[in-house]
Known about the structure:
Layout: H1 3-19, H2 37-42, E1 47-52, H3 54-59, H4 61-70, E2 73-76, H5 82-85, H6 95-106, E3 110-111, E4 113-118, H7 126-131, H8 135-150, E5 157-161, H9 178-183, H10 187-198, E6 204-208, H11 217-232, E7 238-241, E8 244-246, H12 253-265, E9 269-278, H13 286-305, E10 310-315, H14 351-362
Parallel strand pairs: 1-2, 1-10, 2-3, 4-5, 5-6, 6-7, 7-9, 8-9, 9-10
Helix pairs in contact: 8-10, 12-13, 13-14
Bound molecules: (3S,4R)-3-hydroxy-2-oxopiperidin-4-yl beta-D-xylopyranoside.
Amino acid sequence: MSSRNLDFTRRSLLKTAALVPLASGAVGQEADASNSLKSKAARRGITFGCGVSAPQIAKDQAFRAAVMADCAEIVPWAEMKWGFLEREEGSLDFSSADALVQFAHANSLKIRGHTLVWYNNLPPWVPQALAGPDGRRFYETHIRTVLSHFGTKVVNWDVVNEAIEPNDKLPGSYRNSPFLKRFGPDYIPHAFEIARSVLPHTPLYYNDYGIEYNFQGSKRDAVLELLSSLSKRGLVDGLGIQSHLKIGLWFDAKAFRSFLADVASLGLSILLTEFDVNDMRAPADIATRDREVADHAFRYLETTLDEKAVKGLVAWGLSDRYTWLDVPPFARRDGLPSRGQPLDAKLQRKPLWDAIARALDGAPVRPS
Ligand code: XIL
């Protein structure tokens, strides 16, 4: 090849490089801010956000930039849970949660509250304290203290998380938890009553998983029953559907669409609160895996976003750099890192990012 040709080749390569949109990676997204998940969502009246944890935000500047480029909202993975806030009785530590609130506000992001009443991640002293003579006081004080601390800095709350579990075979399909044991099912409306009294204008959500697929129909029914009784008393504003999807499970769009319509007909909002795709059953090959993840997600999102009551979508981790999907028992058996988040571990967009974007672009506009 002559030097002239070589030069030409180099020049055309440079030219091609200039044409490759910078926006193919999070780092260059400032180049076209409208080509972000948050703006695509906003154009439809939907809030797009992601779950994060405080150290990621504090220590990883590139990740922070990726969050700001794609998200209008963050949700703390753990920092607002009881087990995090009060390891020992009376020793409240809001510092990590406050750091996230501060980061959100400094960057015009919303922040959701997650979560007040959850059977999991309880401080070790709580189950015994709840069972004792002052159990009711501990329960009520926890809810009041946390809500009063954050006040209106938090846009909405998952008041009760994962309270339905048909496998526990109890009446009403309630999960067998320290709360249920001590107070009976009334602990659920009671939590909402307290929350309403502390923050009368903050939307309050019931949040759960395991209702996305058809074989979880009995859980769907029980959730609907619970929502219906809470909403009759004006205690709940919406349902959070965690949306932890899994390759290999068959998603029945029609049945789920009609469940969403049932929830909406109660006058409730719906949020997809912890969206991600577990790829442990997908092949190792990255291109195939990414395609399967994207296809599975698209079918789900196309269906859910069609319901106008669905007002928010939160990815449970924006990138494969930080994801609970790599932690057993959710991790792949072959030890390969999971690919269930919209950006890869280098914060580059993946087919899943495109699938989310396409589903948002195709969603009907929500009334404001
Ligand atoms: C998970 C977090 O992602 C992890 O980092 C943490 O160790 C455990 O909790 N349902 C929920 C979330 O409501 O709070 C959970 O988050 C995932 C399942």
